[in-house]
Structures are given as C-alpha cells and as structure tokens.
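Hi R.,

Quick one: here's the Site-specific DNA-methyltransferase (Adenine-specific) sequence you asked about.
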Amino acid sequence: MEKIEQIFTFINKKTEELEKTESSTYLESVLTTLKGILDGKYELPFEAATKEEMRKAIQLSILKGMRESSQPNHQMTPDSLGLLITYFVEQFFEETLKDGTISILDPALGTGNLMFTIMNKLDGKVFATGVEVDELLIQLAGEIAELIEQPIQLYHQDALRPLLVDPVDVVVCDLPVGFYPNDDIAKNYELSSKEGMSYAHHLYIEQALNYTKDGGYLIFLIPATLFESEQAEMLHKFLKKYAWIQAVMQLPENIFKSKLHEKSILILQKKSDTLRPPIEVLLAKVPNLSNKQALLYFFEKVKIWKEQNTRK
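And here's the predicted structure, written out as tokens:
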C-alpha cells in the first residue's frame, strides 16, 4: 500500500501543478502527467512498482478527477467487481488458460480499469481489445496500458458502429445505460425500439454478440432493473434466439450509492450447434464482498453449478 500511496502522491502533485499552469481539468492533467512519465520528463522517485501497484495508483488519480468531472460517462468499474468478473472468466476458460490464451473485448472500455484488472490477474494470457468513444478516456487507457506494460488494441469510435474486430472468446462490459441518441445507427439493430429512442445497453448486448465466437461468453454489468423495463420483453425474445443465459447474479446493495444505481451480473453464452444449453441457470445473490466466509461459500456454490452444467 505504501508504494501505491507514493505513486499516487507523485502523480497527484504533478497533476495539480499542471492543472494550474495549463488551465486544464484534473483528468486532462493526469493524462499529461502519465505521458510525461512515459517520455522520461518526470521520473518516479522510487524503485520499480508492480503492474498492480501502478494500476491502482493511477486509478486513484483518475477517480479523483472523475469526482470533479460533471461528465456522466466518466465512471470507473470498481476493483472488487473487476476481480469478480475475472473469477468467472477463469472458471469458464479454466482448461484453455492452463497453457493457452484467450481473446477479450470490452466495447465500452472507459479508462480500461475493468480490462486491466483482468489482464493483470491473467498476466500474459489475454489478447485484449477495447473500444471507447470518449477521446480523453481512451487516451488515458492507452497511457495506462503502456505504464503497466499490458498490450491492448484500442479503437476510438462509437462501438455501435461496425467494428474492425475479429470475434473473441469473451466480451466483458460495464454497460453504458440510457438512450442511444443516433436513430440512424439504432435502426440497424434487432433491439432498436419501434417507438421512441432505443436503449443503448440493449444495443450494446446485441453488438457484443455480433463480435463473440459461437460458444463464447459475455459477462455484463447490467442495471438491476434490466428485465423489468418497458423493452424487456423484446430483449427476452432476442436473447432466447441467439444466446443461452448462464447466470444472473444480484450484487450487494452496499456497493452502490443508491437503489437507482444498483447493478447485477449477467452471463450469456452465444449459441453454438456443437454445444448444449446449461442444465440450470445460476440465479444467485453475491454476498457482501468484505465477508470472506460468505464469499468462499458463494464460490463453492458456483463451482458445484459449473461441474453440474459441464457434465456430458
């Protein structure tokens, strides 16, 4: 923790100096600071840090900037949820990861905290691709990737437009929630609303399936009310047509600021002619993430479910 604090203190000091002299926002100044470190303009005043120490320290700086920002899309997936999603990636690709690699796409990358959490945990086992429409956020992701020495292919674009991305083994995404403003693009999707604006989070699910291999997995952080909305029936029909629901898990309430912001985890598997659907969908409530005993029991429950669903 001491090293993380040292890195954060160093980045924060340089960032605040730049914020004053360059008349830029804190987040813009974080970007300039990270570039300065990479270019050798600023030298970190201590010995080499681990990839995780560097990621966590930069994350603290970005979180500080996001709290000062009025941009609703400037949000970060918490480490605890990133590690939880990593656990499920490890479970579904246990055999492959023993001596191979997997490809992962995040179509709403942000600054990459979710992806980099996974990549640091599965170091050297992931071929990663990220798509992000916000220029500042993807620039930050690019600098972070270099500083923590994690290779990632980045695309600065609207992820709901056609992507130059090959189908991947798994998609992970903290879904952007709300209405999608471009009706011309939305009408190309089966999940476009017949009346009024379409839900962006529905379109992201459809687009993610387009770029997932047959039999591949999709792990989403979804609004807790996803299957209760006015367009939920259309989403149900779509998922029944193209995917198998593997799991729906309610996350602990204490993670979120209010009931309005509560999320769940949705795990899908893209249908494949060579595979069969799950025997049973995992419906569970994730315990308080600080309760180690309850978490161990939860993970044991997941393992039993997985074993039962992978029997021939």
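The CA atoms of residues 301 and 307 lie 10 Å apart.

Cheers,
M.
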